[in-house]
Amino acid sequence: MTNGFRGGSIMGIRIPTRFDENVATRCAGCGEIIGGIPFRVSVMDIAPTELPPSWARTAKLNPGPHQFHADPEHFRAWARRRGYYFCRLSDVREIMRPVPMPGENLRWGLCDGMHREAHEFVPA
Ligand SMILES: [Zn+2]
Ligand SMILES: [Zn+2]
Predict the structure, then answer these.
(1) What is the pTM of this model?
(2) Cα 58 to Cα 37: distance, rounded to the nearest angstrom
(3) Which one of 12, 74, 87, 117 is CB 3.0 to 4.6 Å from 111, fit for a cystine?
């Protein structure tokens, strides 16, 4: 019994087991439980002023953090389901930047913003 308090009840009040870990952390990509440390990705608009005002009102991305398995493919599966695009010059990092893509419908490209070249967005 060296692992600390494992739950139970005191005076009839149920105490939940373990406060420090969320046993039901699920990957936003595949829906499976994440066994180890989740990879957290936040979608942060670093320069919101770049958005045309009409989009800024309607287009809200959930900034997260979203939690995934460490494999970047799980992040891309999540992005794919939402119809996001992914910059080929980008890696999956803890902070991804949403980039509005030109076109008739508002679409988002996700990029880590770590390169100087023009984005090369492909379906995630
Ligand atoms: Zn996953
Ligand atoms: Zn890019």
Answers:
(1) 0.71
(2) 34
(3) 87
Q: For the segment 2-36, what is each residue's pLDDT rounded down to a tens digit?
A: 445 555 655 666 655 555 555 678 999 999 999 88
Distance CA 68, CA 123 (A): 19
- How far, in Å, from the CA of 97 to the mean position of ligand 2? 9
Ligand nearest to the CA of 109: 2
Ligand nearest to C-alpha 93: 2
Structure tokens at 55: 């989009």
Helices H / strands E in the chain, number of each: 2, 8
Tokens standing for 84?
Answer: 């996001």
* Contact criterion met (CB below 8 Å) for 98 and 41: no
Q: Which ligand has the nearest atom to the CA of 39?
A: 1
Measure 45 CA to ligand 1 centroid, in angstroms.
Answer: 24
First vs last C-alpha separation in the chain:
47
Q: Which ligand has an atom closest to residue 66 CA?
A: 1
Under the banding of pLDDT at 50, 70 and 90, the label for residue 101 is confident
| Helix H or strand E segment including 39 | strand 39-43
